[in-house]
UniProtKB/TrEMBL annotation:
It catalyses: [GlcNAc-(1->4)-Mur2Ac(oyl-L-Ala-gamma-D-Glu-L-Lys-D-Ala-D-Ala)](n)-di-trans,octa-cis-undecaprenyl diphosphate + beta-D-GlcNAc-(1->4)-Mur2Ac(oyl-L-Ala-gamma-D-Glu-L-Lys-D-Ala-D-Ala)-di-trans,octa-cis-undecaprenyl diphosphate = [GlcNAc-(1->4)-Mur2Ac(oyl-L-Ala-gamma-D-Glu-L-Lys-D-Ala-D-Ala)](n+1)-di-trans,octa-cis-undecaprenyl diphosphate + di-trans,octa-cis-undecaprenyl diphosphate + H(+). The gene is ftsW. This is Probable peptidoglycan glycosyltransferase FtsW. Belongs to the SEDS family. FtsW subfamily. It is a multi-pass membrane protein. The keyword Magnesium does not apply. It comes from Psychrobacter frigidicola. It is found in: Cell membrane. Its EC number is 2.4.99.28. Residues 1-22 are annotated as: Disordered. Its main location: membrane.
Length: 398
């Protein structure tokens, strides 16, 4: 199942130079590096533009958030370089490493519950130079754990319910901690990624139907019985029925897109960022991009995200062909994280989904997301580099 699924979504990347003289596409590594690099430059440009009014209103310098984003990228590059050059992939798939990583993540999630709320949520740990959102680390920890789990417990995953029940214990604990923060958006991304990895690992369809029904019912309950979630869910249905209260943020986002039209009003010329659209430089940076750079700018962002996701899937498929299942599922899981956050953030900005606090990978302002996203890129590059070097007799460890 995994091979056929990944081969379909990766097929365009298999073009090679043929007798007709057609040029082959760039390697997955080259595409990944170029796309991430372009996205980071675009992020700096748009954060600089979108954050100026917000910074000035708080007595900061005009480019304060630009320099902070640059700092977060620098920290991310350093940590990613350490992960790439000093951490062997095989260590990630050792049971001890995974439980230590999950344990640290769990303890940090607990610690956030005793922190100071920001915008009504306790999602961050104050590290002085950075408010670290532990849910971002949880996404990476879950990917590595599940990628190894579906290989070690492949028989249980493919036959019966044992595989799902075992993984549910771990995910269940994370679910409780994330709901207590609360961070419903990250929970949706994590659960969706786990389901996706189980799907390509060959879990029976009947399990997805049954568990999908249960998860769907729980999600509806989590929305209906929590007032602010219900308000968000209802507001996106008609974003202009109460534009001065519950629909204010979404309505302003749609106005920004409408003003931008095809080519935008011009870089730095946004009106909605002038204290009209809250979180203009974070969750709603895409809306400001739409206003200033128009459809062309938004299409550029989404194209770069698509290239990054496609590179992750190509790396996953190449590892899968060599039967390096853990590495393949890891790269696939990273790709799914990027897909989920890109789709949710874009849909939220465009009024197709209720507003959620999820960033656009490599684009939105935020240290935690940038740090973990760059570490994920380092892991993808590590898989790309090491995969051809691993002998057939060693593939079972990867």
């Amino acid at each position: 199942m995994a091979l056929s699924f990944l081969s379909r979504i990766s097929q365009p990347s298999q073009s090679t130079t043929g007798s007709g003289g057609m040029l082959s596409l760039p390697s997955a590594r080259a595409t990944l590096l170029a796309s991430v690099g372009c996205m980071l430059v675009l992020s700096l440009l748009m954060v600089a533009s979108a954050s100026i009014p917000f910074a000035l209103s708080r007595g900061m310098t005009e480019l304060d958030f630009f320099y902070r984003q640059l700092l977060y990228m620098g920290i991310g590059f350093v940590v990613a370089a350490i992960a790439y050059f000093l951490v062997p992939l095989r260590i990630l798939y050792q049971t001890t490493t995974q439980f230590v990583l999950l344990g640290i993540t769990g303890l940090l999630l607990v610690a956030t519950l005793f922190g100071t709320p920001i915008n009504g949520s306790k999602r961050w740990l104050d590290l002085g130079f950075l408010n670290f959102q532990v849910a971002e680390l949880a996404k990476l920890a879950v990917i590595i754990f599940v990628a190894d789990f579906v290989v070690r417990r492949s028989f249980e995953v493919r036959n019966g319910w044992d595989g799902f029940l075992r993984i549910s214990l771990v995910i269940g604990l994370l679910t409780i901690l994330l709901l207590l923060q609360p961070d419903f958006g990250s929970l949706v991304v994590i659960v969706g990624t786990v389901f996706a990895i189980f799907y390509i690992a060959g879990a029976p369809y009947k399990q997805f139907i049954a568990l999908g029904a249960v998860v769907g019912a729980l999600a509806v309950m989590a929305i209906v019985f929590v007032q602010y979630r219900l308000t968000r869910a209802l507001s996106f249905i008609d974003p202009f029925d109460d534009i001065q209260d519950t629909d204010y943020q979404l309505a302003r986002s749609l106005i920004a897109f409408g003003r931008g039209e095809f080519t935008g009003v011009g870089y730095g010329e946004s009106v909605q960022k002038l204290s009209h659209l809250p979180e203009a430089h974070t969750d709603f940076l895409l809306a400001i991009t739409g206003e200033e750079l128009g459809f062309v700018g938004v299409a550029m962002v989404l194209l770069l995200e698509t290239l990054i996701i496609g590179s992750a899937m190509r790396i996953s498929y190449n590892a899968l062909k060599r039967r390096q299942m853990r590495m393949s599922y890891t790269a696939f899981g990273i790709g799914i994280i990027f897909i989920a956050q890109t789709v949710i953030n874009a849909a939220m900005n465009m009024g197709a989904m209720p507003t959620k606090g999820l960033t656009m990978p490599f684009f939105s302002y935020g240290g935690s997301s940038m740090l973990i996203s760059l570490i994920m890129v380092a892991i993808l590059l590590k898989i790309y580099k090491e995969s051809p070097e691993i002998g057939k007799s060693q593939c079972r460890y990867y």
